[in-house]
């Protein structure tokens, strides 16, 4: 039987009693959606999944995005490989740590809904797990915004650009990322979204404007945009909104992109191996009326 235990912190809950390699019953799926809206980050411990099962579970929540890099599961491009492992001089995956705070897929016209990550190898030092992932609660961040900002930005939109994130990663020490090709940039053109979204699972407002991809608030001058973005970014990253997950092998971690930001910490060395497989789910169904109530949706 499924059991959901909140962390007691600003985000996070552990879900036990589910085997994610098996098809979800409609009632379990609906309960997971409610928990996802409430807690933002869900941990499913002690799972045993192959790439096909990870894809099948993730696809229950929406369409899956294929990665821009070549580090995907052979024959299953919707499953990305995140790793620092090098075999015969060649990396087997793309590093996801040290990327700073962001929300995956906010650069898409159809934004991201959830990420689903499955931990296979977790780096450790002196018995302590490394490579933790931190999250920030954007429902709480909106709630605490000064009223003058809520009024000022009530109908504002922001432009999100994948290239901002990619170029920031290219400047990191040791990075071997090439610039995006014109073809890759064409696949990830900038997109525009409201600064404040209504969360489809809770009906609450969220602050949907992250430092990884947001480049401009469109209704104001460039100088005013820079000032507003700096205020929003500083506000949303206050410690009181943050929760950190420490990984264990067999963890499946699912988090809500609409209501959270995240940041993976690069506190491990090349010889301390990390291997995680990931699916990124688009928000192409979650805004539909009745999503999660019918086993066919």
UniProtKB/TrEMBL annotation:
Residues 5-279 form the TauD/TfdA-like domain. The keyword Oxidoreductase applies. Pfam families: TauD (PF02668). InterPro entries: AtsK-like, TauD-like_sf, TauD/TfdA-like. Keywords: Dioxygenase, Iron, Metal-binding, Oxidoreductase. This is Taurine dioxygenase. Residues 169-192 are annotated as: Disordered. Belongs to the TfdA dioxygenase family. Signal peptide: none annotated. One of its GO terms (molecular function) is dioxygenase activity.
